[in-house]
């Protein structure tokens, strides 16, 4: 590494403090799976393996916000932390600050690492408690094949059951 | 060591107000917030509990901890430092210096445990064992060789496997004692180390993936083959090491499941799919819950039976609720 040569414009623009916040119209989604994944892409990889249509919560404030139009399950990671503080990614807070999005959430799936102890999948716990929806499942990093099977099957049953009890 | 340490040939003043990769800042902040020192843990509360272990169990525990000390020493003085010249951003360099220092804190914390629980003679014997155990020395040598090699991606693979896989034959034991309500303060300290290693493995694995993105398909294949070969080499050695340590207390098979489980996580940190099937990664639930109280089956809503299947209804919350 010699100098600051490899600057990615997108990332650099984001890093400047006082960053621009998008005023664009929200991007509407009818997906029943909505997820957040950082640039590590772990959660994105898990969601891709599910093979279910899914919408991604934007990474950067200058991206148009995402607006849910159908009931959905939220998948989000927890990156450690202590005592829950800062566990929910700020992009997810921004997404859930939209009352329309909050109204349509039906469940949470948490990603994390058991090495984080009490904080394992804490962001999922916090959102489940605040939105009074079940924390459906927890998996580590990008999930194993067994996690993928269980979530595919579990979600199918969940939506079926939900359509029978809540109409 | 006779080899010359590779250093950066050119350095510019680091500007934390111009960030190329947000992950550098996120991980720096996470590591700083996680900072701890062994003096904060009341290890002396474990003295009575230590006395309830049999001489064999005490010796096993001492040996496990000297093995962990060796790995942390390598990672602190060679491993994390060897990654600095390959860093893509100046902030990445700074993160490695943080990682290196914390590894030295970890290495020192085992000495705090030793001096609290054991006699000088026992401590010296355990350290002598660590220099004489073939499998422990072999794992150190394999990793050291790659740190001194000239391939930056391979160094990151070796480093991630050390952080996310090689420690776990040792970490098993304090989790086991903790699950039996023994050496619980020592276990609290080890959990802090485990938490740190998770962030280290995640970050080094992430930087590995960033580096790999730019490579040709051929190079990607070469690195993937190399990763799995190295994992197998280390795994075979870990199995031997596990038998050396745990056969005397009959825990070797249980430890191996924990090895498989963590090998999968190490691979995932590097962006590869898990390799060991669920049939050999069914870690003892007592060990998993010693690691994380939320990791057991009771937290799997999907596997709940129909009758206990309670579905909540989303309720409206106020904006104030979202000031975390």
TrEMBL record, chain A:
UniProt cross-references to InterPro entries, sorted A to Z: Flavoprotein-like_sf, RNR_Ib_NrdI_bac, RNR_NrdI
GO MF assignments: FMN binding
Transmembrane segments: none
Domain of life: Bacteria
Signal peptide range: none
NCBIfam families xrefs: nrdI
Role: Probably involved in ribonucleotide reductase function.
Family of the protein in this entry: Belongs to the NrdI family.
UniProt name for this protein: Protein NrdI
Species this chain originates from: Arthrobacter oryzae
TrEMBL record, chain B:
Binding locations of Fe cation 1: 72, 103, 106
Entry's cofactor comment: Binds 2 iron ions per subunit.
Native source species: Arthrobacter oryzae
Record-linked InterPro entries: Ferritin-like_SF, RNR-like, RNR_NrdF-like, RNR_small, RNR_small_AS, RNR_small_fam
Residues reported in the UniProt entry to bind Fe cation 2: 103, 163, 197, 200
Subunit structure: Tetramer of two alpha and two beta subunits.
Lineage per the UniProt record: Bacteria, Bacillati, Actinomycetota, Actinomycetes, Micrococcales
Claim: Cell membrane is one of the keywords in the record: no
Keywords for this protein: Deoxyribonucleotide synthesis, Iron, Metal-binding, Oxidoreductase
PANTHER family: RIBONUCLEOSIDE-DIPHOSPHATE REDUCTASE SMALL CHAIN, RIBONUCLEOSIDE-DIPHOSPHATE REDUCTASE SUBUNIT M2
The keyword rRNA processing appears for this protein: no
EC number per UniProt: 1.17.4.1
Molecular function GO labels: metal ion binding; ribonucleoside-diphosphate reductase activity, thioredoxin disulfide as acceptor
Family that this chain belongs to: Belongs to the ribonucleoside diphosphate reductase small chain family.
GO biological process, one term: deoxyribonucleotide biosynthetic process
Active site residues per record: 110
Catalyzed reactions per annotation: a 2'-deoxyribonucleoside 5'-diphosphate + [thioredoxin]-disulfide + H2O = a ribonucleoside 5'-diphosphate + [thioredoxin]-dithiol
Name of one Pfam family that matches: Ribonuc_red_sm
Cofactors that this protein relies on: Fe cation
Enzyme class: oxidoreductase
GO cellular component, one term: ribonucleoside-diphosphate reductase complex
Purpose of the protein: Provides the precursors necessary for DNA synthesis. Catalyzes the biosynthesis of deoxyribonucleotides from the corresponding ribonucleotides.
Protein name according to UniProt: Ribonucleoside-diphosphate reductase subunit beta
């Amino acid at each position: 590494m010699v100098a600051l040569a490899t600057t990615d414009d997108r990332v650099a623009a984001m890093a400047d403090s006082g960053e621009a916040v998008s005023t664009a119209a929200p991007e509407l989604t009818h997906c029943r799976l909505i997820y957040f994944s950082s640039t590590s892409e772990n959660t994105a990889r898990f969601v891709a393996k599910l093979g279910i249509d899914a919408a991604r919560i934007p990474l950067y404030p200058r991206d148009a916000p995402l607006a849910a139009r159908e009931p959905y399950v939220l998948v989000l990671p927890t990156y450690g932390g202590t005592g829950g503080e800062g566990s929910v990614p700020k992009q997810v807070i921004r997404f859930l600050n939209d009352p329309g999005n909050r109204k349509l959430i039906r469940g949470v799936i948490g990603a994390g690492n058991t090495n984080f102890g009490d904080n394992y999948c804490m962001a999922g716990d916090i959102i489940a408690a605040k939105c009074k929806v079940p924390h459906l499942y927890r998996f580590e990093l990008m999930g194993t094949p067994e996690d993928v099977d269980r979530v595919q099957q579990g979600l199918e049953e969940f939506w079926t059951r939900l359509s029978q009890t809540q109409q | 060591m006779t080899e010359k340490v590779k250093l950066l040939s050119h350095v510019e003043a680091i500007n934390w107000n111009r960030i190329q990769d947000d992950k550098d800042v996120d991980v720096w902040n996470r590591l700083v917030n996680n900072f701890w020192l062994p003096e904060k843990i009341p290890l002396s509360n474990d003295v009575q509990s230590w006395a309830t272990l049999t001489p064999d169990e005490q010796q096993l525990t001492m040996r496990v901890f000297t093995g962990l000390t060796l790995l942390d020493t390598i990672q602190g003085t060679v491993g994390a430092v060897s990654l600095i010249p390959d860093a893509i951003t100046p902030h990445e360099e700074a993160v490695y210096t943080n990682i290196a220092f914390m590894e030295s804190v970890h290495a020192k914390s085992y000495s705090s445990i030793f001096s609290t629980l054991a006699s000088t003679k026992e401590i010296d014997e355990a350290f002598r064992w660590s220099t004489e155990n073939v499998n422990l020395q072999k794992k150190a040598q394999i990793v050291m060789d790659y740190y001194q090699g000239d391939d930056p991606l391979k160094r990151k693979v070796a480093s991630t496997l050390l952080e996310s896989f090689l420690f776990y034959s040792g970490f098993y034991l304090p989790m086991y004692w903790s699950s039996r309500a023994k050496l619980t303060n020592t276990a609290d300290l080890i959990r802090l180390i485990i938490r740190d290693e998770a962030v280290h493995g995640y970050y080094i694995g992430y930087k590995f993936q960033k580096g790999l993105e730019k490579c040709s398909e051929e190079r990607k294949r070469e690195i993937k083959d190399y990763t799995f070969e190295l994992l197998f080499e280390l795994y075979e050695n870990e199995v031997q090491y596990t038998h050396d340590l745990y056969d005397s207390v009959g825990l070797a098979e249980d430890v191996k499941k924990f090895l498989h489980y963590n090998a999968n996580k190490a691979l995932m940190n590097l962006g590869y799919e898990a390799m060991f099937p669920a049939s050999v990664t069914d870690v003892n639930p007592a060990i998993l819950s010693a690691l994380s109280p939320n990791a057991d089956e009771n937290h799997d809503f999907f596997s709940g039976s129909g009758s206990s299947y309670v579905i909540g209804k989303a309720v409206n919350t106020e904006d104030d609720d979202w000031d975390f």
